[in-house]
Amino acid sequence: MIELTKQEVENEYSVKNGYDHDAKVIYGDTDSVMVKFGCPDLATAMRMGAEAADLVSGKFIKPIKLEFEKVYYPYLLINKKRYAGLYWTKPEKYDKMDTKGIEVSSTCPNMDYADDRLSVEIIADWYRMLSRLVYSRCSSTGTSRALKSMSSL
Fold first, then answer.
1. Which end of the chain, N or C, is less surrounded by CB atoms within 10 Å?
2. What is the mean pLDDT of residues 33-40?
3. Are residues 43 and 96 both part of a single domain?
4. How far is residue 91's CA from residue 150's CA, in Å, rounded to a whole number?
């Protein structure tokens, strides 16, 4: 099912079909699939995620159904079960900062102002800086391939 999802999403959401970017499935396991659509805003990402879930669900044998759940932006995917990002279920305001498999310090700059839209940009800058640091460190150990796509957050 993961391979079918990957094929359908990447074939449909592509430059050749009139989209600005080619969608890329960046992660998939038994119960989730993460897609990078390359779209310009959260509302578009949410709409495309819901459309893709419906498109792929139509290919599955009933009662199997893929459901759109959330958007992570910004998002740092280090590897399986190691990530951090802001978790959005509506485009107006993020729900929480979600992390798994990494330690996040409570001294992150401007976390006291996390409700302010501007601080989301500050947090995004923090993630960009962190991803460059992680990328640089991994590059020196010879494991940079897995992180190259994340270095451009």
1. N
2. 90
3. no
4. 22
The count of structural domains within the chain is: 2
End-to-end Cα distance, the chain: 28
Distances from the Cα of 55 to the Cαs of 34, 35, 58, 89, 114, in angstroms? 15, 14, 5, 20, 35
**Residue 141, in any domain of the structure:** yes
CA 70 to chain centre: 9
C-alpha distances in Å from residue 48, one per residue of 35, 105, 127, 139? 10, 33, 24, 33
- The whole domain housing 121 covers 71-150
**Would the pTM count as exceeding 0.85?**
no
Q: Are residues 136 and 75 in the same domain?
A: yes
Average pLDDT rounded to a whole number, residues 5-31: 91
Q: What is the pLDDT of residues 45-78, one digit of tens each?
A: 999 999 999 999 998 888 888 899 999 988 888 8
